[in-house]
Amino acid sequence: MPINIPDRLPATQVLTGENIFVMGEERAMAQNIRPLKVLLLNLMPKKIETEIQILRMLSNTPLQVDVDLLRIDNRPSKNTPEAHLNAFYRTFEEVEQQNYDGMIITGAPLGLVEWNDVVFWDRMKTIIDWANQHVTSTMYLCWAAHAALYTLYGIDRKIRKEKYSGVFAHQVLFQNHPLMRGFDDVFWVPHSRYAEINAEEVEAKTSLQILAASPETGVHLVASNDGRQLFVTGHPEYDPDTLHNEYIRDCDAGLAPVLPENYYRDDNPNNEPLVRWRSHGNLLFANWLNYFVYQTTPYDLSQLNPVALASKLS
């Protein structure tokens, strides 16, 4: 089944060129089924690039998915044309009275910034709280995962001196969990972050389940028991060259970044990256849409009831 996005969105042409079934708005109007409604809050500077990455992941499912794009505020973007934002993005005020089947909040390059120094921190907390009442299941990626764990559970991140950069092996800790169905015992995930979450604190202070972790980079997948919150500390959506582009950017800026681990063939930045995370990245998004969203969301979204959803998933 297709992903339904605006006809003129740049991702439409890119994904169609990859033979991904993209349904235009006009054709979608003729469909006789209710598609899933997913809200994407894009916090990354290069929004078009991130749109394509996330939409590619959402397309790998037999379900039809309608996607709304959300911006955190109306501040001008240095990396995305204002015309693009005005054409395709909605403000929070435009969606706050609606309900959604799923929501994805991306990471942001704010790993070294204190929470209260983040320009949009108050709005971020508002949206996290709003999602608990208006969204069946929310996926928080990287920085957003840390922000949500702090806002919802008081679990603060630990800032490291050196950045986790590279592709790291992870172990599945709950083989029978629906989100882990089809996963190998060990799978690979890209990381690009300074912060980490303490597993012992998560286990001591919450009833959250740590589903997967890495001996090198720590906690990776954390889920609430009712399936309404999924925290992902890595970047399973990354393109093959995303870490490379970040590395070159930091080199050009004179930051002397560490070479991304387990990424370039033979650890030589002149070689192509070795892509070994794509299959599990697609599987993660497909499992989330199927088990945490599609099988639990009400047909009539106006009837979304957080208490009833928690009972259904327990």
From TrEMBL:
Keywords: Acyltransferase, Amino-acid biosynthesis, Cytoplasm, Methionine biosynthesis, Transferase
UniProt entry tagged with the keyword Protein biosynthesis: no
Site (Important for acyl-CoA specificity) residue list: G111
Coiled-coil positions: none
Top class in the EC scheme: transferase
Pfam families: HTS (PF04204)
Catalytic reactions of this protein: L-homoserine + succinyl-CoA = O-succinyl-L-homoserine + CoA
Entry's localization field: Cytoplasm
Homology family: Belongs to the MetA family.
Listed name of the protein: Homoserine O-succinyltransferase
Phylogenetic classification of the source organism: Bacteria, Pseudomonadati, Pseudomonadota, Gammaproteobacteria, Alteromonadales
Gene field: metA
